[in-house]
Amino acid sequence: MRRPALLAAGCLTALTLLGSAPVAGAQPGVPTPAVDASSPTRVVSVTMATDRRAVMSVFSSSMNREIQVQVLLPADRSVPRPSLYMLDGVSAGEESGYTESTWTQKTDAVSFFSDKAANIVLPVGGRGAYYADWAQPDPVLGVNKWETFLTSELPPLIDARFDGNGVNALMGLSMGAQGAMNLLTKHPDLYTGIAGFSGCYDNRSNETKNAVRATVGSTGGDATNMWGTNADPLWAENDPSTRVETLRGKQVYLSTGNGFPGPYEAGGGFGEEIIDALTVGGPLEAAANICTTGFADTLRAAGVPATIVFKPYGTHSWRYWQDEMHNSWPVVARALGL
User: What does the H/E/C string look like for the chain?
Assistant: First the structure.
């Protein structure tokens, strides 16, 4: 995402969580073609970028388009294995022109998972879509039926093509953390656990709804096309905080910084990356801290166990998420049965 849009999203998200005015929706753009549900979801192609990295093109019946999915494969592929689905932040691979997930662009995911006995599934795309099923097409972001794709269409294809054993877990950051938590709490029979970094998991207040609107709006989309007006029941239907009982018995790892500079901002001068981390990542992570604190309170009140990490520093930026990808692995490994 371009820096001005990120800055706007960071400030608006922080402000809405502190009680600001509602965020305006995006202006109409190019019309979206109707979905042809008669075409079955199928694997269109699989190419090997390396001997351990598959690039899969999947035609999604629900979205009527091809979706790229990359899969990092384990060294030992002689036995069936679990799958970890890794969901992106708001840009969803935009930095590469949607040729790969931002996870593999910005972290050491390829090397870190190289000795893990699991399929690492990385959907590419879904910018600003929260990995949700939208109520209607958006003039800018098009048709989004990511919940259907990720929970119904894709898993059987992954298991069939890459010898999955039916055990699935989720990892997500920022927008992807909220999306992952929504998927797990709506489909608890499909997933055994989750790792979520710097996410918001509660849609009950207008402030958190407007924070979602700010995030979607930063991509040019309009969240009204996703879940309607703030009074629409769809917001409650996609609110993980109302379904925390589904997390009982799951492996749950959540983490957040607090928006203050940390080791990755120290001594970094005033280059663009550091300025972005402070002016954009600081407010965003402060907002994520508020969200995670509230969700932790909800879990605690319900008596649902979870590993929740509040760091005394940290901005909304990739080097901290790389750390958390590493730190969360013991919990994720238990979820995957490894």
Answer: CCHHHHHHHHHHHHHHHCCCCCCCCCCCCCCCCCCCCCCCCEEEEEEEEECCEEEEEEEECCCCEEEEEEEECCCCCCCCEEEEEEECCCCCCHHHCCCCCHHHHHCCHHHHHHHCCCEEEEEECCCCCCCCECCCCECCCECCEHHHHHHHHHHHHHHHHHCEEEEEEEEEECHHHHHHHHHHHHCCCCCCEEEEECCCCCCCCHHHHHHHHHHHHCCCCCCHHHHCCCCCHHHHHCCHHHCHHHHCCCEEEEEECCCCCCCCCCCCCCCHHHHHHHHHHHHHHHHHHHHHHHHHHHHHHHCCCCEEEECCCCCCCHHHHHHHHHHCHHHHHHHHCC
Asked whether 279 and 10 are in contact (CB, 8 A), the reply is yes
Confidence (pTM): 0.89
CB distance 104 to 62 below 8 Å = no
Q: For 135, list phi and psi in degrees, rounded to 5.
A: -65, -35
* Domains along the sequence of the chain with CATH: 3-14+131-336 (3.40.50.1820)
Task: Let me know: does 170 contact 186? Beta carbons within 8 Å.
Answer: no
Q: Considering only CA atoms, give the Rg of the chain.
A: 19
Q: Which two tokens stand for residue 297?
A: 């309170």
pLDDT in tens, 130-142: 999 999 999 999 9
Q: Rounded to the nearest 5°, which phi and psi values hold at 136?
A: -155, 160
pLDDT in tens, 221-251: 999 999 999 999 999 999 999 999 999 999 9
Q: Please give the backbone phi and psi of residue 336, each rounded to the nearest 5 degrees, phi first.
A: -85, -5
* Residue 329 token pair: 């692995």
Among candidate residues 165, 125, 166, 173, the one with its CA nearest the CA of residue 149: 125
